[in-house]
Amino acid sequence: MTVVYYLLLFLHFVGWAIVLGGTVTNLRTPRLAPGVLHGVLTALVTGVLMTGVAEMGDGLPDLNYMKIGIKLVVAVVITALVVVASRKKDPSRALIGSIAALTTLNIAIAALWR
């Protein structure tokens, strides 16, 4: 289970990197990069799967359900914003900036909350 957990963690990082990179690089001319929707869905699904695998496995980190709940709410909001932005022909700079800011917040919660 440890290998599965860390493989999911790697894919989770890749998903958030795609979202953050795809939004930050397009802040000047607001548009949504093609892979951002797939990146946010990858991050959301792998985060949920990581929680399930960590709950089942021994020798994996103890779960902080408050942290997981807050990160899940932020991830769902980011996913909704990405879906809205992907359906718009010309998304606003505020929408793209909100996606980037919330993604940064989610990464900060993961890295700094111990």
UniProtKB/TrEMBL annotation:
Species this chain originates from: Georgenia satyanarayanai
Keywords of the record: Membrane, Transmembrane, Transmembrane helix
Lineage start: Bacteria, Bacillati, Actinomycetota, Actinomycetes, Micrococcales
Official protein name in the record: Integral membrane protein
Annotated transmembrane regions: 6-24, 36-56, 68-87, 94-113
Keyword Transmembrane in annotation: yes
